[in-house]
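Quarterly update, task 2.4: S-adenosylmethionine-bound model.
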Amino acid sequence: MTDYRAFLETKRLAAAPSGFTAAPATINPHLCPFSLDLVRRCVELWSNPGDVVLDPFAGVGSVGVVAIERGRRFLGTELKASYFGTAARNLRQAEAKASAPTLFDMARVG
Ligand SMILES: C[S@@+](CC[C@H](N)C(=O)[O-])C[C@H]1O[C@@H](n2cnc3c(N)ncnc32)[C@H](O)[C@@H]1O
């Protein structure tokens, strides 16, 4: 692994919310993944829960992951097939995480 790739990997993991990792840079390097904290601020400022967030340049799906995490819906397009595949995987993970019951939900049921 080159130093540059190691640097990218460090940045990507630092930007990922807990439990979510985008594709490792070694497998599918993406030169410009967003900072998820920046995306969170934008999504919360400019949309409401239930709204559709559109990212026409979706890359590995960072905006979609945050949209789902914050109770929005997501529409994205991506030119590069490998990024699209990674985005689909990341979005599926985000949906599973968002719909998984927490211990607090369980406590309400019981
Ligand atoms: C700045 S990157 C997006 C990064 C993304 N926000 C992320 O965090 O993964 C821009 C993306 O736009 C895609 N792209 C460029 N031209 C496009 C087009 N005409 N239609 C769809 N996607 C395009 C590129 O393949 C690239 O993945």
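Highlight for this quarter: The domain at 4-100 is CATH 3.40.50.150 (Rossmann fold).
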